[in-house]
Every structure is written in structure tokens, then in C-alpha cells.
Structure prediction request, 700 residues.
Amino acid sequence: MSTVEQQPLFLRACFNEHTERTPVWLMRQAGRYMAEYRAIRKDVDFWTLCKTPELCCEVTLQPIEAFGMDAAIIFSDLLVPLPPMGASVTFGKGMGPVIEPRIDRASDVDKLGRPDVADTMGYVGDAVNVTAKALPKDVPLIGFAGAPFTLAGYLIEGQGSKTWMKTKAFLHQEPKAAEKLFGMLADITIDLLKLQMDNGARAVQVFDSWVGALDPEDYKRWGLAYTRRIVEGVRREGVPVIVFAKGTGTYLDLVAQCGADVIGVDWTQPLDRARALVGPNVALQGNLDPGRLLGPWDALRPALDRVLDAAGDGKGHIFNLGHGIDRHTDPAQVKRLVDHVRTASAARRG
Amino acid sequence: MSTVEQQPLFLRACFNEHTERTPVWLMRQAGRYMAEYRAIRKDVDFWTLCKTPELCCEVTLQPIEAFGMDAAIIFSDLLVPLPPMGASVTFGKGMGPVIEPRIDRASDVDKLGRPDVADTMGYVGDAVNVTAKALPKDVPLIGFAGAPFTLAGYLIEGQGSKTWMKTKAFLHQEPKAAEKLFGMLADITIDLLKLQMDNGARAVQVFDSWVGALDPEDYKRWGLAYTRRIVEGVRREGVPVIVFAKGTGTYLDLVAQCGADVIGVDWTQPLDRARALVGPNVALQGNLDPGRLLGPWDALRPALDRVLDAAGDGKGHIFNLGHGIDRHTDPAQVKRLVDHVRTASAARRG
Prediction:
């Protein structure tokens, strides 16, 4: 141990260092599965919550206080850039987002504007600012934004999709318009991530949540090319970049070519296989199936151990789920999960 | 060439033989993208079509007559077993299936019956019988049925799902009831496939369409164990068994352990990678992204060549999509696809 103050555990793992135990946080850890969150949402709609920095701060801190994760992620939404571009986003009861008007033809891309991020999404920076100051010093705040395919997918489908077939049709039929759209989205994402870094985010995560719908060739063009541009655009000393592209397990080697410090991994393969694909020079984040949190502890515990085992010596591993936590998760299971990952990973380091 | 009459091209490829060219058929090749199909559906609802053998025959033959695929697949539906078990299946306008009542708790499994397949699904056998006789001798008819996870998923969710989270919760919370349900579904699927073989199906395909939602450990228990039982249960000299489990590309080696003759591959990895996972002793079926059929020919053609290239010498390769054809596909593209796969694969054999 050096006498110089150490970086927080989470950041050291992001930079692929050996750590004394495995840091843990969970995607969507601030959310509906927590009674504390539902108590706030009872009186506030989703967008109001996103746009009220003090409430974002409160909600972001809830899981840290309840469960002691090693990192916090700012409460916000991937679709934050869409309204300033000219597409409304509404959340119906029990439904995913609905985007209007959706992009139906090439000329619709020209109707979207390139908003100034600080002017129109400044509330995200403000929320990060307040929250970063409120967090314990050893719990870094993660900022985030969506990658172009995922954002474009919502714009083109007008909602979520199982197959993203309209989006694929658009990419193949209107590649020039798609390139214009993706370029604009990448630039906005870069600015939005920088805004969060300027306000105290100590790591950033790019969510390309649905890009796994593409085949490897299309992924190179519509996924990798833009995440690489984003990673290069936000690169800053000491601030790791995490790229999570769900459903890309078969071509995780391509995903890792984006230059990110950390690659998120879903649950469809053990981390040792993921490691074989991405090589030794990046950290891995994942990869428990959130569905396993819905089962009993005696089945969950060995699943946690399998994740830790597959991470080998644990170097450069951040424990997480392979997707956001489900709203029906029992908070008691989350507490057990966090505690077990802490103690079991420390024990493994001997 | 021997003087003994050769088996049809498609069957020889299923048995992993060298063939003079690559056989081709497309999942959901009889369907809404064809005007001929829509003309029939105009006057007949979906279930009536499924239950009218002469209409099934007509619809099954439509793509063979229009495009000349090397195999036909009987027009039917994965959810055929559900109503005789006691769960109604309705298709709303532009929606997927709705299943009522859904399985909400363990005791709901006991309310489902184990129907006699010949008595309650005899219309599938009749449709196969009529259609097998109507097809050209060199175009084998494929029978099919759903695997337990996929059928159970619809029963538990009450509809399709992006995440199959209710299904996972049920598996983890009620494993005994789930085993009872999966065992019953496997037995029904075995009987349904045998019924089709008895009536002239010369190959059968097991669709485990949504099992890729599981992690590898859960896949072994809730996917592989049952597809293996089904493959063993229907094994018959000269009738190949195809298993298609979309979204399982990261653990295709596990999928291949079911003992099927042919493994279906989705578009998330090239066939040479899939081959490396499954080994040399099974045939592969796939693996074009159906989204590519929505683009122009000058982009589609190189994608077809990439699939053929990745299949190496073409031994034991059946060209197909990695999922069902999209309803917005231009039939002219399907014609070009079939023609190109025929000529380009023959040219590759020299």
C-alpha cells in the first residue's frame, strides 16, 4: 500500500487492476424494486423526477444507503436527448416509452434538431453535480448515455421492440440518412457524457442496449464505429469508460475494439469465455441474469459464486447484473447479493 | 452418381453429407409477405386455416411454387398444443398471441391436462398427410413443434415477452411444478412430431425460439435436458431432427449436445464460428438476418455470399434465415435469394 491516497475500489477495477475484493453495483439499482423509490414516484412523474436534481440525488443514493454498493449511477434516462431533438417521449402506465413523431422516412431525420446539450439537458449535469457531492468519497458516481443504435431504434420504431425490424429496414434502405442520424446522436452522447464528467461523474457508461439485434457486419458499421467515436470523444485521464452492449456475446471481441476500459457482459456466457474473446487488457463488468434474483437465496448464492469463479483471479472484474434489475426483485436479495460478493470475493483473494 | 435413387438434396445436407449445392428454405416461408397467402387469410382466420388440412396444404405449397425452395414446412403454429391442454390462444389484430388463463402459480399447472395428441391435434397430421402427397418428390416436408421452454413461456407470461422474466421467476421459485409442466410439454411435443412423421413428414424441427433468454446453467436444465429427451423420443431411421434455439449463439456447444442432426444458427455469428462450437458431426442451418431481406439486392447479395463463405466447403449446410421471414419482405427478394444460393453454392463446389 502506498501512502498516496488510493483511488476508490470501483475505479481501480475499471482500470483492470488487482483489487482486494470485487466491487459491485447493479444496473438500475435505483428503481421501482425499492419502497423508498416508489414512495418518491408516488407524487412525482418520471420526467419530473429526472429533471429535479435534488430528487435525482435522493433516489441515486437510496441503494447506496440501503445496500452499500461500490458505485452509484446517476438517476436519469437514456431517452433524455430525444425531446430536445424534437421527438416527445411519454411513458404510459405499465408501458415502455412512446416516441412521437417517429422517424418513418429519410426526410424525417432532417426534421430533428441538434440541440445544445448544456442548454437543453443541463438538468442532467445539475443532478450529477449535487449527487457527486452528496456521495461518500469512496463511492464514485457513474454518468451515462445511450449509443446511437439504441437511441435511433426508439426514434425509428416509436417504442421498444423485440426485433428492431423497422430500424434494420431503415439502416438498409436509407443508409445515408441513418449515417446522418447516427452521427448526430453520437455527438449529442459525447456532449452529454462530457457534461456529466464536468460535473463530477468519475466514470461513464455507454448503453448500446439493443445493438445485439444486428449481425456482426452490421454491428461493425452501426455499433462499433460509433461507440469507438464516443469513447475517443470522451476520453479523459482517470475517468474510465464502460461500454455495455447487451446481446453481443457472440461478437464481444468486436465490441472490445471500441477502446473502452470496461466491457459489460450479459449472462449468456461465463466471464472466462468473455475474457477469451476480449483479451487481457480490458476490465469486465457483469454478469448475473437478473432473473436469478427472483429465486431463493439457496439457488442465488451458487450462481454468485459461479460468476466469481469464472472471473478467475478477479483482476479487472466489476460484479453486476447482465441487464437492469427487475422491478419485482426482493430488496433483501439485493442486500444478500452485495454482502456475499464482498465477502466471498475477498476470501478468494486469500 | 449411383443408380440407386438419391435422397433429396435437403435430407442429404441434414445428414451432414457433401452435396452438389446448398439446399435452401426459409423459416415462415409460407406467410404474410406473400400476396397468395394474404388472399387466403382474407376470408379465413388463423386457427381455421391451421385446422383445415386442404388450406394448410395450399399455403405450404405457395412458396415452393413461387420460389422453388428445397424443403417445405407444414403450415401450423407452435401453440397448437395449448388449447387442448386447457389454455385458449387468441390472436388480436396486429398483436401476438394471448393465452388465457395463464399460469400464475404452481397449482395452475395441475389444472392443465395432458391431451391425447391424435385425438386433439389430429388436424396437424391430416395437413401433413395431404401436403406430403401434394409436394414434388424431391421437396421433403418438415414437421415441427415447440420445445418446453418456449411453450411454457407463453403459458406463464400469457403472451410473448422481451425478457421472459415471469417465466424465469416461475422456474426459480417453483422448480417442481416447472418440471412437471416441462415434462408434460416434452411428451406432447414428442407425440406431435411422431404424428407428423407417421403422416409423411421427412424431417422435423424443434423450435426452442426463446430459450436464449436463459444463462448457460439454466439452459442445461430447462433447455438442453428436454430437447435431448425430445430428440431421443422421436429418433427414427432416415428422418433428421433439426433443433433451432434462437439466441443461444454463445452456448451453441451446449445446444448441440441434444443429439440433433441439424442445429439452427441465428445471425449473431458467422457459421465458421458456430461450426467451431458444435464440432464437425452435425449439419448447420442458417443464418441470414431476416432484416437484410428488407434492404436492396446490391447489399443483400454480398450478405448471402458471406453466409456461403462462412459455411466453408458447404458440407452439411442448409441455407436459411436466423429467424422467420419478416412480413414486409418483398417476394422478389426471396426469389433472388433462392436463385443466388442455388447458383452461387453450385459454383463454389466447382
